[in-house]
Prior knowledge:
By secondary structure, the protein is α/β, with parallel strands linked by helices. It has two domains: 3-50 and 296-389, Aspartate Aminotransferase, domain 1 (Alpha-Beta Complex), CATH 3.90.1150.10; 52-294, 3-Layer(aba) Sandwich (Aspartate Aminotransferase, domain 2), CATH 3.40.640. Helices cover 37% and strands 18% of the residues. The strands form three sheets. The protein has a seven-stranded mixed beta sheet with strand order 4-10-9-8-7-5-6, with helices on both faces. It has a four-stranded mixed beta sheet with strand order 1-2-3-13. The site of pyridoxal-5'-phosphate has 15 residues, from helix 4. Residues 97-99, 102, 131-133, 183, 187-188, 216, 218-219, 244-245 line the site of pyridoxal-5'-phosphate (PLP).
Amino acid sequence: MNDIQCIMSTYGRNPVAFTRGEGTRLWDEEGREYLDFLAGIGVNNLGHCPPKVTAAIREQAGRLIHTSNLYRIPLQEKLARRLTDTCFADQAFFCNSGAEANEAAIKLTRKFMRDHGHPSRFEIITAVHGFHGRTMATLSATAQEKVQRGFEPLVPGFRYVAFNDPSAVEKAISPYTAGILVEPIQGESGVRLPDDGYLESLRAIADQHGLLLILDEVQTGMGRTGKFWCHQWSSVTPDIMTVAKGLASGVPMGACLATSRVAASFSPGTHASTFGGNPLACAAALATLEVLLDDGVLAGVPDLGQYLRDKLDGLKGHQAMIHATRGRGLMAAVELKGGTEEVAAMCLNRGLLLSCQMGTTLRMLPPLTITRDEIDQGVAILDSVLSDLF
Ligand SMILES: *Cc1c(COP(=O)(O)O)cnc(C)c1O
């Protein structure tokens, strides 16, 4: 076996390896330069190796990496304060990934219902084509056959309804229902935006039936859509929210945030994570928040997002293979009439990273620090690829 065969083949990998990154740019083993319009799948929101985050990680690594949650972690307390100051939440639980954040949210929802006299309410309504992770509970929450196939029996307690259809949620409610879990914009299924008012309707339904509203902001959070949290484009606040991808600029970290009323159902011993919220990850996340909020990165996202989408719309004007473009902030998609895999592969060959979702959609999640110049360059590469292929 060669080295690559020593890795379980869970990924269809492109035959390229990056050795260095700076801002929106990456360099591979041969020294070729790439424009990264995917940012580690929405992780490197401040670009590659943002100096302040890199410095914070270096400094913390030399001081204290890990201690465990048996002891107080002041950096974790500071991070919880900083995160809850950005939104509805009062308290945070820290873990290491999006799936774990959703696991925490699912457990918290069940426990909350138990604690409030509804032991039979354990079911969570989720949306078709949503994505919530790959652990047994989160893949069971993920209403996509390709994620679930082969891993049955699924964890009980999830009901699937059409996305963007509040009446479908209402119809799915039973005496067993505990909560509603959705992404404010579906990321993995190709940047699918619901209609205005969708979250408001879900909030009203949840309130009317005594359910918890859980928002999965793992991909849409941390400034991706131009607000710190995507749900802040609406007038709604959830009871629980999950975050991960961009939280610590690539140091693995997730969090489950909740109101104190709901969070009170987690008491000592009910949930835990060995690594969750260790000093290294917290230092990275605190530096990330600082750059995002205090250095004005977030403030620039709406204009940059509009600029990118205008460019993509311009492309649609003369590229007949483009069926539609959509997005919010710097979360964008180009839906093609065909050949999407080939387009993504040829873009990579020409030095542009983006992803192909659901076989039909090119997804872009560039660093929030991207420049207009870099947007021009990336869109020009896509333009040339579309011209040469079709
Ligand atoms: C990526 C993602 C997850 C899973 O996160 P992992 O860190 O891979 O476990 C969950 N929900 C959404 C919306 C995501 O985009």
